[in-house]
Protein backbone atom coordinates (compact mmCIF):
# COMPACT_ATOMS: atom_id res chain seq x y z
CA UNK A 1 0.00 0.00 0.00
CA UNK A 2 1.34 3.40 -1.03
CA UNK A 3 0.54 6.93 0.08
CA UNK A 4 -0.70 8.61 -3.11
CA UNK A 5 -1.24 12.34 -3.59
CA UNK A 6 -3.32 13.34 -6.61
CA UNK A 7 -2.93 17.01 -7.55
CA UNK A 8 -5.42 18.67 -9.88
CA UNK A 9 -3.34 21.59 -11.14
CA UNK A 10 -6.14 23.22 -13.12
CA UNK A 11 -7.19 26.47 -11.40
CA UNK A 12 -10.74 26.16 -12.79
CA UNK A 13 -13.23 24.72 -10.28
CA UNK A 14 -14.82 22.46 -12.91
CA UNK A 15 -12.60 20.94 -15.59
CA UNK A 16 -11.75 17.70 -17.31
CA UNK A 17 -8.55 17.69 -15.23
CA UNK A 18 -10.72 17.46 -12.12
CA UNK A 19 -12.63 14.53 -13.64
CA UNK A 20 -9.37 12.76 -14.52
CA UNK A 21 -7.97 13.37 -11.01
CA UNK A 22 -11.16 12.04 -9.41
CA UNK A 23 -11.21 8.95 -11.65
CA UNK A 24 -7.58 8.19 -10.86
CA UNK A 25 -8.06 8.77 -7.12
CA UNK A 26 -11.15 6.55 -6.88
CA UNK A 27 -9.35 3.68 -8.57
CA UNK A 28 -6.13 4.14 -6.59
CA UNK A 29 -8.08 4.21 -3.31
CA UNK A 30 -9.04 0.57 -3.86
CA UNK A 31 -5.48 -0.46 -2.97
CA UNK A 32 -3.71 2.62 -1.60
CA UNK A 33 -4.14 5.50 0.80
CA UNK A 34 -5.08 8.47 -1.37
CA UNK A 35 -5.36 12.19 -0.74
CA UNK A 36 -6.43 14.75 -3.32
CA UNK A 37 -5.60 18.40 -3.75
CA UNK A 38 -7.37 20.80 -6.12
CA UNK A 39 -5.48 24.06 -6.55
CA UNK A 40 -8.75 25.78 -7.45
CA UNK A 41 -9.66 25.43 -3.76
CA UNK A 42 -6.39 26.91 -2.50
CA UNK A 43 -5.79 30.53 -1.58
CA UNK A 44 -2.26 31.95 -1.70
CA UNK A 45 -0.18 34.68 -3.34
CA UNK A 46 1.34 33.11 -6.44
CA UNK A 47 4.30 35.41 -6.85
CA UNK A 48 7.64 34.87 -5.17
CA UNK A 49 8.39 38.61 -5.39
CA UNK A 50 11.84 38.47 -3.78
CA UNK A 51 12.96 35.07 -5.05
CA UNK A 52 14.88 33.20 -2.37
CA UNK A 53 16.38 36.42 -0.97
CA UNK A 54 13.58 37.03 1.52
CA UNK A 55 11.60 34.53 3.57
CA UNK A 56 7.86 34.97 3.14
CA UNK A 57 5.48 33.23 5.54
CA UNK A 58 3.52 30.47 3.87
CA UNK A 59 -0.25 30.68 3.89
CA UNK A 60 -2.16 27.77 5.54
CA UNK A 61 -2.95 26.17 2.16
CA UNK A 62 0.76 26.14 1.28
CA UNK A 63 1.73 24.65 4.64
CA UNK A 64 -0.87 21.93 4.06
CA UNK A 65 0.55 21.31 0.57
CA UNK A 66 4.04 20.88 2.04
CA UNK A 67 2.63 18.38 4.56
CA UNK A 68 1.00 16.42 1.74
CA UNK A 69 4.19 16.37 -0.33
CA UNK A 70 6.16 15.06 2.66
CA UNK A 71 3.42 12.48 3.38
CA UNK A 72 3.23 11.17 -0.20
CA UNK A 73 5.23 8.33 -1.65
CA UNK A 74 3.71 8.72 -5.13
CA UNK A 75 2.56 12.06 -6.56
CA UNK A 76 0.21 12.34 -9.53
CA UNK A 77 0.02 15.73 -11.25
CA UNK A 78 -2.95 16.36 -13.54
CA UNK A 79 -2.34 19.59 -15.42
CA UNK A 80 -3.66 21.35 -18.49
CA UNK A 81 -1.42 22.95 -21.08
CA UNK A 82 -2.08 26.69 -21.12
CA UNK A 83 -0.13 28.71 -23.68
CA UNK A 84 2.23 25.78 -24.10
CA UNK A 85 3.13 25.56 -20.41
CA UNK A 86 1.74 25.40 -16.87
CA UNK A 87 -1.18 27.46 -15.54
CA UNK A 88 0.18 30.45 -13.58
CA UNK A 89 -1.42 29.33 -10.30
CA UNK A 90 0.26 25.92 -10.47
CA UNK A 91 3.62 27.50 -11.33
CA UNK A 92 3.07 29.89 -8.41
CA UNK A 93 2.37 26.94 -6.11
CA UNK A 94 5.69 25.38 -7.10
CA UNK A 95 7.52 28.71 -6.74
CA UNK A 96 6.12 29.27 -3.27
CA UNK A 97 6.47 25.72 -1.89
CA UNK A 98 9.46 24.02 -3.53
CA UNK A 99 11.86 26.19 -1.58
CA UNK A 100 15.43 25.77 -0.35
CA UNK A 101 15.53 23.56 2.75
CA UNK A 102 12.23 21.97 1.75
CA UNK A 103 12.69 20.64 -1.80
CA UNK A 104 16.43 21.12 -2.10
CA UNK A 105 19.41 22.41 -0.15
CA UNK A 106 22.37 24.33 -1.45
CA UNK A 107 25.65 22.76 -0.37
CA UNK A 108 28.71 24.95 -0.09
CA UNK A 109 31.35 24.02 -2.64
CA UNK A 110 28.96 21.88 -4.71
CA UNK A 111 27.56 22.75 -8.13
CA UNK A 112 24.30 20.89 -7.57
CA UNK A 113 22.04 21.11 -4.52
CA UNK A 114 21.04 18.19 -2.34
CA UNK A 115 17.68 16.72 -3.37
CA UNK A 116 15.46 16.72 -0.26
CA UNK A 117 12.40 14.95 -1.67
CA UNK A 118 14.18 11.80 -2.80
CA UNK A 119 12.44 8.46 -2.44
CA UNK A 120 9.19 9.64 -4.03
CA UNK A 121 7.84 8.83 -7.48
CA UNK A 122 5.46 10.72 -9.71
CA UNK A 123 3.47 10.55 -12.89
CA UNK A 124 2.04 13.28 -15.08
CA UNK A 125 -1.36 13.43 -16.72
CA UNK A 126 -1.47 16.27 -19.22
CA UNK A 127 -4.55 17.66 -20.99
CA UNK A 128 -4.35 19.87 -24.04
CA UNK A 129 -6.46 21.28 -26.85
CA UNK A 130 -4.00 20.32 -29.58
CA UNK A 131 -3.15 16.78 -30.65
CA UNK A 132 -0.54 15.33 -28.26
CA UNK A 133 1.87 14.46 -31.10
CA UNK A 134 1.83 18.10 -32.22
CA UNK A 135 2.55 19.36 -28.73
CA UNK A 136 5.33 16.83 -28.14
CA UNK A 137 7.12 17.01 -31.47
CA UNK A 138 6.41 20.48 -32.84
CA UNK A 139 5.94 22.54 -29.67
CA UNK A 140 8.78 20.87 -27.78
CA UNK A 141 6.86 19.08 -25.00
CA UNK A 142 7.49 22.02 -22.69
CA UNK A 143 5.45 20.90 -19.67
CA UNK A 144 7.00 17.45 -19.53
CA UNK A 145 10.55 18.77 -19.79
CA UNK A 146 9.91 21.57 -17.32
CA UNK A 147 8.06 19.57 -14.66
CA UNK A 148 10.15 16.41 -14.95
CA UNK A 149 13.62 17.96 -15.23
CA UNK A 150 13.54 21.29 -13.45
CA UNK A 151 11.02 20.60 -10.68
CA UNK A 152 10.69 16.90 -9.93
CA UNK A 153 14.21 15.63 -10.75
CA UNK A 154 15.75 18.75 -9.22
CA UNK A 155 14.10 17.95 -5.88
CA UNK A 156 14.62 14.17 -6.07
CA UNK A 157 11.19 12.99 -7.23
CA UNK A 158 11.51 10.37 -9.98
CA UNK A 159 8.87 10.70 -12.67
CA UNK A 160 7.69 7.32 -13.99
CA UNK A 161 5.42 8.34 -16.86
CA UNK A 162 3.49 11.02 -18.70
CA UNK A 163 0.09 10.42 -20.28
CA UNK A 164 -1.46 12.94 -22.67
CA UNK A 165 -5.18 13.55 -23.19
CA UNK A 166 -6.21 15.66 -26.14
CA UNK A 167 -7.44 17.48 -27.93
CA UNK A 168 -9.95 18.14 -25.16
CA UNK A 169 -11.91 20.99 -26.77
CA UNK A 170 -13.09 18.90 -29.71
CA UNK A 171 -13.48 15.59 -27.86
CA UNK A 172 -16.76 13.68 -27.74
CA UNK A 173 -18.47 12.34 -24.63
CA UNK A 174 -17.43 8.84 -25.74
CA UNK A 175 -13.77 9.87 -26.01
CA UNK A 176 -13.86 11.53 -22.60
CA UNK A 177 -15.38 8.41 -21.06
CA UNK A 178 -12.54 6.39 -22.65
CA UNK A 179 -9.98 8.80 -21.17
CA UNK A 180 -11.55 8.61 -17.71
CA UNK A 181 -11.36 4.83 -17.89
CA UNK A 182 -7.72 5.15 -18.96
CA UNK A 183 -6.99 7.32 -15.91
CA UNK A 184 -8.58 4.68 -13.71
CA UNK A 185 -6.40 1.99 -15.29
CA UNK A 186 -3.26 4.11 -14.79
CA UNK A 187 -3.99 4.06 -11.06
CA UNK A 188 -3.92 0.27 -11.07
CA UNK A 189 -0.24 0.35 -12.14
CA UNK A 190 1.01 1.99 -8.93
CA UNK A 191 3.80 -0.12 -7.45
Automatic annotation (TrEMBL):
Keyword Magnesium set for record: no
Highest taxon in the source lineage: Bacteria
Listed Pfam families: Flavodoxin_2 (PF02525)
InterPro entries for this protein: Flavodoxin_fold (IPR003680), Flavoprotein-like_sf (IPR029039), NAD(P)H_dehydrogenase_qn (IPR051545)
Flavodoxin-like fold domain ranges (all copies): 2-174
Keywords on record: Oxidoreductase
Protein family: Belongs to the NAD(P)H dehydrogenase (quinone) family.
PANTHER family tied to this protein: NAD P H OXIDOREDUCTASE-RELATED, NAD(P)H DEHYDROGENASE [QUINONE] 1 ISOFORM 1
The protein's name: Flavodoxin-like fold domain-containing protein
Organism encoding this protein: Vibrio hippocampi
Amino acid sequence: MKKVLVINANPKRESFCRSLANSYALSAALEHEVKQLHISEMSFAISLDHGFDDTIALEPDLLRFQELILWAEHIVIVTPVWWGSLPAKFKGLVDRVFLPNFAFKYVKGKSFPEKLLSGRTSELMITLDTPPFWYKYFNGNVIYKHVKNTILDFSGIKNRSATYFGPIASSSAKTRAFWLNKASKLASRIK
